Amino acid sequence: MKRARYRNLVALCLSDGGIGFSSGTRYIHFTNQSETLLKFFENEIRKFSDAKIHRQIKERGITLRVFDINLVRELLSISPNFRTKSCNNYPKCKPGCLHELVDSASWPIIHIPEDLFGTKNDKTSFLKIYASCDGYPSIFPRSGTWSPIERIVAIVCHHPKLKLRLSELLDDVEIPHTIKRYSLEMRSRDAIEKFTKKIKFLDGVEMTGNSRHWKGYKKNDILFKIVKSYKTRFEQKDSESVLKKLRNL
Fold first, then answer.
1. Among 14, 18, 57, 187, which residue carries the largest CB count within 10 Å?
2. 143 secondary structure, DSSP code
3. Each residue's pLDDT tens digit, 31-89
4. What is the DSSP letter of 242?
5. What domains does the chain contain, in order, with CATH numbers?
6. What residues pair up with 154 in beta bridges, in sequence order?
């Protein structure tokens, strides 16, 4: 169970982080807009390393970098890669990358070994961290259907084998879901309520600018609105009225 202590850091690196190269030196990196997640990453690093945490502001968020070769080796002993893009996507993989062919494309080999987990709670904790980085809840008006609103909870993942492994973890904790091309989706009331009860998102993590209606709201607040909406009547079906009622939940 020695490797289990790196579980949170593995989830962070597989979602919005990774292991990079600079002048032949490997380093751990993590990029996000959420100060909550950036602080969470810093706290995880401090469990294992006293190395300086470099901070760089970029267009898509703040990047944290840590140069600690011993910690890099520990992570690579768990998974040979943390890159979740295909090998041919920019920037292309370095020579020697361990990869496999999936649907005619080369993908880095990624492992989430079972010995990272001792209990089901360990698996829900891993999924909470991953989903907080690369997942979202969404609720919005829709027209022309039996329901005035659309409800979705999704975990985004482009890597086909990693997506299947995350699906296995959801199965292990009994969360119904559907595998899509680039995500795992929960759309039914049963699935979303179970996700809310067992997993949720890390407290304080906000919705980003990708959300048309909920930018700046806490992800958990939107998740709770979704659950409350199942017991809410929407007498007026126009988008503005529906949104107003959702915001007041």
1. 14
2. -
3. 999 999 999 999 999 999 999 999 999 888 999 999 999 999 999 999 999 999 888 87
4. H
5. 2-83 (3.10.28.10), 117-247 (3.10.28.10)
6. 136, 185
How many C-beta atoms surround the C-beta of residue 110 within 10 A? Answer: 18
3-state secondary structure string across 42-95:
HHHHHCCCCCCEEEEEECCEEEEEECCHHHHHHHHHHCCCCCCCCCCCCCCCCC
Kindly state the tokens that stand for 195: 């996700």
What residues contact residue 81 under an 8 Å CB cut-off, 6+ apart? 19, 97, 98, 99, 108, 109, 110
- If one counts every other C-beta atom within 10 angstroms of the C-beta of residue 4, the result is 15
- What mean pLDDT is predicted for residues 228-239? 84
Helices (H) and strands (E) in the chain, counts: 8, 10
pLDDT (0 to 100) of residue 238: 77
* pLDDT at residue 141 greater than cutoff 90: no
Instruction: Measure the CA–CA gap between 125 and 43, rounded to whole angstroms.
Output: 16
Single-letter amino acid code for the residue at 223 = L
Peptide bond before residue 91 is cis, with ω within 30 degrees of 0: yes
The pLDDT value given to residue 1: 60
pLDDT at 72: 97
